Amino acid sequence: MEFSEEFIKSFIHPRNDLLLKMEQYAQTHHVPIMQLPAIEVLTQILRIQRPKTLLEIGTAIGYSAIRIAEALPDCQIVTIERDEERIRLAKEFIKESDAGSRITVIEGDALEVDVTEFPSAFDAVFIDAAKGQNMRFFEKYSPLVPSGGVIYIDNIFMHGLSDIPIEEVPRGKRSMIRKLKEFTEWIKNHPGYHTTFVPVGDGLLICLKR
Fold it and tell me: Binding positions for Mg(2+) (predicted)?
């Protein structure tokens, strides 16, 4: 059964002026942010999990970090971004947010950041960066997640490219999609995690650490 777009959108809550401004900026400047149905699902699951600390890989302009912080008033968020212009914008938007005091932006490549600078553990990790690097992100940061913690990963479906034979993927994206497929198969069978796929937005993966 397929649900109409109007029915799905009817469950999307109104956003404040700052979030609307960020959504407009992202659309105008082609900055990838989570699709509205996906961020609604993610924040609702996080409300249920109630993490006190969350690490985000891939800040972009700070949209998801702000949405998560607003949904979790007792959560401290650390978010990592390497693009200088996006860092600048994220800091400006975060400063405007009522939840900005609970969001810390780390500047640098998430694969090169020294994890010893972080708290010893994060209740949740949200990976929303270079899709071909999901395996490396996961292997680097999953040790920071304790048993019972959750790792969330966006864009697993990758606009349908993850669901077609690799030879049908545009040549310029084959390497990335191949790595994404390999990671997806790997995590589905990982004995250390209960993993499920939520078909919302561009595909959300939820990995509960055993």
Answer: 128, 154-155
